[in-house]
Amino acid sequence: MSIQVKNIRKEFGSFTALKDVSLDFPTGELVALLGPSGCGKTTLLRIIAGLESADSGQVLLDGADASDTHVRERQVGFVFQHYALFRHMSVFDNVAFGMRMKPRRERPSESAIKAKVTELLKLVQLDWVADRFPSQLSGGQRQRIALARALAVEPRVLLLDEPFGALDAKVRKELRRWLRRLHDELHITSIFVTHDQEEALEVADRVVLMDHGKVEQVGTPEEVYRHPASPFVYGFLGSVNLFHGRVEGDAVHVGDDLLFRDKVAFGNGAEVFAFARPHELNIVIDPQETSGVAAKISRILAFGVTARIELDGLNGSTGQLFEVEITRDEVARLGLEEGQAVRLLPSRLRVFEREKAAIAEGSAPNWVI
Amino acid sequence: MAASRTFRVLPGFGLSLGYTLAWLSLIVLIPLVAVFVKAGSLGLDHFLAAVSSPRVIASYKLTFGASLIAALINTFFGLMLAWALVRYSFPGKRLVDALVDLPFALPTAVAGIALTALYAKNGWVGKLLEPLGIQVAFTPLGVLVALVFIGLPFVVRTVQPILEDLDTEYEEAAVSLGANRWQAFRYVVFPTVLPALMTGFAMAFARAVGEYGSVIFIAGNIPMVSEITPLMIITKLEQYDYAGATAIAVVMLLISFVLLLVINGLQAWTAKRTGRER
Q1: A97: nearest CA in chain B?
Q2: More exposed terminus of chain A, fewer Cβ within 10 Å: N or C?
Q3: Is A72's CB within 8 Å of B176's CB?
């Protein structure tokens, strides 16, 4: 089932949680709402579920306006961050809850309920814990039960609020893959909220990036990672080096250092943000080299496949920290040492005009995924 | 030698346990034993005669019956009051919250006089009830009113923290699974507060059984009608029948003990049934 939200606004007192958000979620996709805490992603999810009501705007489920429909009738499966399993009920009763709450004439027989619960517990690979209580399960198991419980009422959409937020790193990773596989089996339109960019990029078909109550960018994981539409998206997805630069002629300067020489679309003298990923920076040790940003190596971390070099900016970028990723062979070939003064040359750079970035705050385009 | 000793982080276990036991004995156990010893001096025949005279039996019925009903009433309204205090915000909420403790703080005699003045035939409330043929003061109904009054804080104060801890997430989960308001309360909220509710009930009941000061004024103390058991003990004492008084005390003690045991058993049973057992 498709979900559309149109011009949603929501305020909590003087705090604006959502500023005129419009989004289309097509049928059968797994979409991530990604953003820092307080960006409004959970509020949006709760409004779609009907647990919260918007101050203005519409929620359309399958094209029909559901804004005034009670959460009970929206047929959405909602999975809570802290599972919200009923502590006084066994796992079986938890999963059966939704079916047992139906009006008598719609309620399946107890044997049908039993069959359905067993099937769902098998689906989440936990059929052996049916008689246990939630307190006897691990966090990952609880979250899977919560999912089974939400699926039991055969929801038209599945909404997950930070589903892996309360789990430790290893379990989180396992559950992530598991959720992806489950979605590939069920093909139920799903939206999940997360502040973890890795999680969003890894699991979702589409990623919606949100900040300060508005949508920053929508796209496939690859699109948003490779072509960030705003400085916020660039900074939020993956680690990044930021240069505060100034356009002079056809080059970007940081202080007196020349960062990059290329056709720049901005006028002479424009203040810009320039972004480069750690692997997009080259280290130059030649003291004769005059282009690039001067920096001093503060640490070399060489325990992975690639080495991570941490640097302190010099001259125009004093006080800034940079991070470069190169192979370990490269470190050995260059003979890099801590304390060494080098220059950083970007192989790829993304430049945003500083004023444009500020202006973009006000606009609210309708993002179609 | 030293290695075989179990190491405790907190010092003074022996001292504090010894002190606690000594204190408990002095304050609770020795007086209780004295009650049994004193009652034992009566001999079985006299004991039975003392505790089963019709007037005493009538007082048991009133004390335990009225206490039970009062505790039930308090359980119901206490839950509602706690719910209102936790879930809603309204002007004067803090004042209402503070007022709940009034029956704790008020000297019972003051409460008794106030209630009597209100419910007597010429009192504010009594005046209104009189034409309807309802008489409260100096009847068993008056006893009930006083017991409801003094038992009010118990259920509220035991249920309130549990309700505060109960995240609205649970109700949201229930509703998103298709439960209506009543079902969400019946199957999610109520089972969660049930143990606290039973504790509150037990405490309100125990307090009501032992209540003297506030009841004695409004009860009227008519033999066979509105005499409570603690009054029977006082009456015996005033007649210098110490053994008889303690005999009745023993019976009260035993009934209360058995009832609390039953309630504890019920709590253990619900805990086991709902996976809270540790």
Answers
A1: B177
A2: C
A3: yes
Give the mean pLDDT of A156-184: 87
Show the beta-strand stretches assigned E in B71-195: none
Question: Which residues in chain B have their CB less than 8 angstroms from residue A51's CB?
Answer: 172, 175-176
- pLDDT confidence of A369, banded at 50, 70, 90? very low
Q: Which residues of A touch B177 (CB under 8 A)?
A: 97-98, 101, 149-150, 152-153
Q: What is the CATH number of the domain that holds B90?
A: 1.10.3720.10
What is the Cα–Cα distance from B227 to B219, expressed in whole angstroms?
7
Do B176 and A51 make contact, defined as CB atoms within 8 angstroms?
Answer: yes
> Which residue of chain A is at minimal alpha-carbon distance from B193?
A88
Do A136 and B275 lie within an 8 Å CB cutoff? yes
Residue ranges and CATH numbers for the domains of chain A are 3-235 (3.40.50.300), 239-356 (2.40.50.100)
Would you state the pLDDT for residue B83?
A: 92
Domain count within chain B: 1
Residues 6+ apart with CB under 8 A from B194: B270
Answer yes or no: is B239 within a domain.
Answer: yes
Cβ-proximal residues to A19 (8 Å cutoff; 6+ apart), any chain: A9, A212, A213, A214, A364
Residue from A48, A87, A94 to probe the interface with B (highest B Cβ count within 10 Å): A87
What is the model's pTM?
Answer: 0.78
Do the domain assignments include residue B58?
A: yes
Q: Which residues of B touch A157 (CB under 8 A)?
A: none
Which pLDDT band, with edges at 50, 70 and 90, does A100 fall under? Answer: very high
**B111-136 pLDDT, tens digit each:** 888 888 888 888 888 888 888 888 88
Centre a 10 Å sphere on the Cβ of residue A340 and count the other Cβ atoms it contains. 17
- Inter-residue contact B157 to B100 (CB < 8 Å): yes
